[in-house]
Write a structure and sequence with these properties.
The chain has about 140 residues and is mainly β. About 10% of the residues lie in helices and about 35% in strands. The longest helix is centred in the C-terminal third of the chain and has 7 residues, at about 125-130.
Amino acid sequence: MVCFLCSRMDLVKHRGGCHCGAVRFEVLSSPDLHVFQCNCSICTKKQNNHFIVPKNHFTLLQGSDNLATYTFNTHVAKHTFCKTCGVQSFYTPRSNPDGYGVAPHCLDPGTVHSVTVEKFCGEKWEESMEAHKSIRDMSQKPS
C-alpha cells in the first residue's frame, strides 16, 4: 500500500504485528529497508534484526494493553513484546530512543522491495555508536 501523501519522500505504509495478531501497527518507511543486525547480548539471544524510524512514522493500531516491556543495563532501550505470543515486533532502541526499531519479519507481505543488512557491533556499543555517522539521524523527522 503506497502512502500517496508521502510519495515525494518515497515512503510506503507498511503494516505488521505479532504472531497472534493482538498487536498491530503501521509504519511509514522506504520500501527498501536498511536493517541492523546487532550482536549485543539481547539482540543475539532473540535475533533482533530491525530498521529504525522516527516516532511520528509509527502508529500502534491495537494491542497497547497486550504489551509488556523488558529493560536492563541503562534502561534506555524498551524491549516491548506481546504478552500472549511473546513476539517483539517493535521496540525503542538505545541508539534511537526518539524512534522505533521495527522487525522487518513482522511486516505483512507486499510492501517491502528490498532489505539491506548492516552488521552493528553491539558488544562494543559505545565505540560502534561513535563510529557510525548516520544511525542517530535515522529516527529524526525528515526535513
